[in-house]
Amino acid sequence: MANNRVLVVDDEPDALGATSRAIRLAGYAVKTASNAKDAIECCEQHSFDIVILDFLMPGVNGLELLTRIRKIQPLVRSIIISGKLEPNATEKDIAGELKQSVQADAYLHKPLTSGVLLNTMSSLLTREPVADWQAIAKDMARASGIKLQEAARASKKLKALKKQKDI
Amino acid sequence: MPKGDDEFRFKASAYLQRLIGRELFRSDEMAIVELVKNAYDSGAKHVDITIQQPTIKQPGVISIQDDGSGMSIVQFRGQFMFAGFSSRPQEVAAAERIPTGEKGIGRFAADRLGVELEILTKIKEDDRTLCVAIDWSDFDNRAKEFGDVTVPFTYRRAVEFKKDEQGTLMRITRLRDAWERSKILALRAALSELFNPFEALSQFIVTLSVVGSPALSGAIQQSPLSGASIELHFLVEKDGKVRRKIKGSEHPTAKGGQWAAGAAVLSELKGVRGRLLYFLARPSKNETQGLEPGVRLFRDGFRIEPFGSNTADWLGVAEKRAKRAGHAHIVPSRLFGFVGISRTANPDLIDTTSREALIDTTAARALVKLLREQLEVLEEIIRAEIAEPRWEENQSRKVAELESARLQALNLMSYGLAHELRQPLHTVQLEVDNIKTRLVQLEIDDPDINEAHANVTTGIERIEKSIQTIASLAKGDLGVDSDVDLAKVVSEVCGNLEARCASEGITIQVKSSDKHDAYIDETLFRIVLLNLLRNSMDAHVNTDDGRNREIKVVLSKVNGKHQLIVTDNAYGIPEGIRAKIFKQFNTQKTGGWGVGLYFCHTMLRARGGEIAFTTKDGVGTTFTVLFLNGEVSDG
């Protein structure tokens, strides 16, 4: 567990402290960031197994930040914690709604017990990260100015790479 | 009076003709109306008015021809040529018609229209026609005596009348005014308003022909008004008692449309009758037959000007409205009245020579008083039946709107509050778990600490539940109607509660059609349904006698409204709180805020919906909610 590195991003210092403490006490190596800029910098310097993001943060929301982190670390697992108040929607609905715009691996709802959080993390670590390989390839292609045909080739290569990894 | 030494005699200047003719009538239209009345008095069935507008080639002509009895030379000399004389008061008893004129000066009205008047008149018994030519300018000389002005005539066969025909033709030339379109329209209006539309004169037809303009020509007609909200009919009986009948009202005064006797009035008013028509909404032109509002006065079927015109507020309706606004319930523009008086039955009701007022007599004052009393009865009906309920409805709507606005503000606040509470709650939950984790790591296992941890967790759960309650009432798009399938909404909302129901052993049965289309406030519907379901589920928390915990939801259409029924078989609502169930901060639950039903009730009332309940101790509770289908705008 100590080998697993976790990044926690939350603009609220108390929540950030509580969440990171819970994870640290469970034996993970934890880094924290209180804003998007710090989070990106952190991701550029270290690789993580899991990022835990608050959904609502000033300036940028958890999903936008996740999109940017994925560009740096495509295989990172992700948990978004939402305190969103949708009176008539269940958490399932919110999760579905959020999943439509970006693929996070898990969605949790505030207030959260440490048990639920840690269980979710360990179950994520036992399976492969969910990722839209084609989208990742396209993003990478666009970022590096590769043309679409080349992008398709890159996508194929990535898929092959994944296969290799599976074997 | 002492007998004098000698006698003086009045002489009249020829100029007198001008005073009782050209200068007596306010307008040309009224002058023509006078001549039409003369034709009516002569027993005519048809009067044809022909207007030939002046052109470069030919001068203008107005001719008025009737098929009345005509005049012999003797009659012409004795009646027509005798100013101020009218044999009509004596004719009254024998006549089929009650004559409209009695002043004996109507004929001078022709001077108002043109300088020259040619009269052709023929009686049935004579083949010849009397042709008289009058030049009104002959009367302009003030020094000349009235009786010295001569009027030439011939007595001959004329092409205008066939052998067996009778009647009179007045041909007016050297017109004093240009008869433009607007003036002709004004004449048409004056003629059509000449008769009481509710008491049409039998066998008297007036036709207006404008040479070269078929659009302006045709018979003069005036149909009765229709579609009035309230009609008050009144009649002064022979005994002087006023009887009244009111249509279109359930007011006690109306007595089911029967004639109801009121106090007696002056005997001079016997036979006076009329109807007051009142429109609660602005009437259409079709309903008013193009008539302007006002209370009109008719004598023996002919209108007396100016009563009912927009300049004559003779009953003080407009003045009262102006002074007392909301407390004067009659809006003048929605009141139409038709009052009939008679020359024979009400001889004291006399109009002035200029036809512009009633001469101030006791009877005239009594007539005004009588009409004002009728208007007061009408006003009382409007006040009691419409204005007051409408006022109360407005008041309660205002209260509901205010309430709803307050709730909306409260919602917005609650939304922020709920979010703010949830954030630290999240931290507290995690940190209390962290303490527990750390203690375990330090190998401290203390029952008190464990119990304290469990209590904190329960407390957090309860706070979270409250936050959810507040949040369930807090949403921004309340009050917006849209097309919605309620069957789908019911199934969704019930589905969302499935997990909790399963854990608490509650089954929800839904009865509705596959599709239930409505145009209502979906958010409100969701909030109401969710609240009722949550209340039923919370009620079942107490059922511990082994009964099947059931909730039934029935969705249906009733009289165009959408009916939602939620029934549970819990223990029912305790008697002590039933009466105040829709009041705020009324709850029997732990952790409940007591605002859910209050909110639903207030919001539903504001939108014209209803909510009610029945409950039985130990058996269960049923809530019935009606949602009004919103009005889809026309575009």
Note down, in words, how this protein is organized.
The complex is a heterodimer of chains A (167) and B (635). Chain A has helices spanning 13-25, 36-45, 62-72, 91-101, 114-126, 133-144, 148-166; strands at residues 5-9, 29-33, 50-54, 77-82, 106-109. Chain A is α/β, with parallel strands linked by helices and 167 residues long. Chain A has two domains: 5-125, Rossmann fold (3-Layer(aba) Sandwich); 133-164. Chain A has a five-stranded parallel beta sheet with strand order 2-1-3-4-5, with helices on both faces. The radius of gyration of chain A is 16 Å and the shape is globular. With 635 residues, chain B is α+β, with helices and mostly antiparallel strands. Chain B has 15 helices and 22 strands. Chain B has helices at residues 16-20, 28-41, 73-80, 88-91, 110-113, 181-192, 285-288, 317-324, 362-441, 447-473, 486-496, 498-504, 522-540, 575-578, 596-606; strands at 46-52, 61-66, 114-122, 129-135, 153-156, 167-175, 205-210, 218-219, 230-236, 241-247, 260-264, 273-278, 294-299, 302-304, 335-341, 481-485, 506-511, 517-521, 549-558, 561-568, 610-616, 620-627. The longest helix of chain B is centred in the middle third of the chain and has 80 residues, at 362-441. The model of chain B has no long low-confidence stretch (mean pLDDT 84). Chain A binds chain B through residues 12, 14-15, 17-19, 21-22, 25-26, 81, 83, 85-90, 93, 110-115, 117, and chain B through 415, 418-419, 422-431, 433-434, 437-438, 441, 457, 460, 464, 467-468, 471-475, 493, 496, 523, 526-527, 530.
